[in-house]
Amino acid sequence: MPSIDAARRRLRLADPHISVLGILVEESEVPGELETALAELRSAGIVGDDGSIIGDLYPLVATLLEPRVIVRTEITGPQGVLESGAVIGNDFVFVHEGWPGEAESEYLPVEAPLLVPALARSIDLHEDVVEGADLTETIVSTTGELDALMVRMEAGQGIVDTEEAARETGAPERLVEVLAQLNCMWRMTVAWKNAHVENPEPTFTGLAVWDCGMEGYWVRELPAEPVREGEVTLESPLRVRRTNAKELWQMLADLLPDGSELG
Question: DSSP label at 199?
Fold first, then answer.
């Protein structure tokens, strides 16, 4: 169910609720398939019987209807895939995070200078377990070998014997050792339109990282993000490099456009 925390300007909304709010702002008729979402918004006191939206929602709705920058993060872990991200508008910035097993995400405003810390928190960027790790260490394989290894892990077999897992999947033994400690994988994609280009196509930047517990953080350099549909095959090269929290913090900041690109 949707809900609102007026004291801290937080909202819990699912995608159908967002769709309904956009339709109401445009003063259009809500289609039948969204009637349940509309009823839930009314029950939560977010939408009046006459279709009016409470004033606290206008910053969020205005930002969602005319975003300047969209950040989307997919976090794959033991409880499935969760989505989080951020939306930057002309006047407001909102971040949102999902919760395992729930349709609603929590939306809350942040000040623009605090966006990178908010994104870092959303992917649980934390102090490195391994100090002084070799940040030049790389592992080279293929996406097919990675997929075979992930299938084995998802089937509940785990990785007890790294030599056996490497032999059965064809993956390098070092890759097996790293993924045996996997907590989660996350991919962050940022999209915006450059204000100084006539009729611009959206600009995309992206980052893919493995959080591997005692083996630390690894950034996937190949296939490089953002990956478009059909670009990667089982034969595509895979290259991951060890990184750390400090470097990742800077990578998060570098994903975002600067003011000159937005105009």
Answer: S
Question: 77 and 93 in contact (C-beta within 8 Å)?
Answer: no
Cβ neighbourhood burial of 119 (10 Å; 0-12, 13-18, 19+): buried
**Prediction pTM value:** 0.92
Contact between 120 and 244 (Cβ < 8 Å): no
Extents of the domains making up the chain: 3-122, 138-262
**Which residues of the chain have a pLDDT value below 70?**
156-160, 196, 199, 260-261, 263
Residue 53 is which amino acid? I
- Rounded CA separation 163/13 (Å): 46
Amino acid letter for position 39: A
Cβ contacts of 82 within 8 Å, gap of 6 or more:
74, 75, 97, 98, 99, 100
Tens of pLDDT, residue by residue over 103-125, are 999 999 999 999 999 999 999 99
Over residues 144-197, the pLDDT tens digits come to 999 999 888 887 656 667 888 888 889 999 999 999 999 999 999 999 987 767
CB atoms within 10 A of CB 152: 19
Give the Cα separation of 65 and 25 in Å (integer): 9
CA dihedral 146, 149, 150, 153 (to 10 degrees): -160
CA angle 128, 132, 123 (to 5 degrees): 20
Structure tokens at 232: 């990667």
Residues 140, 63: Cα–Cα separation, whole Å: 42
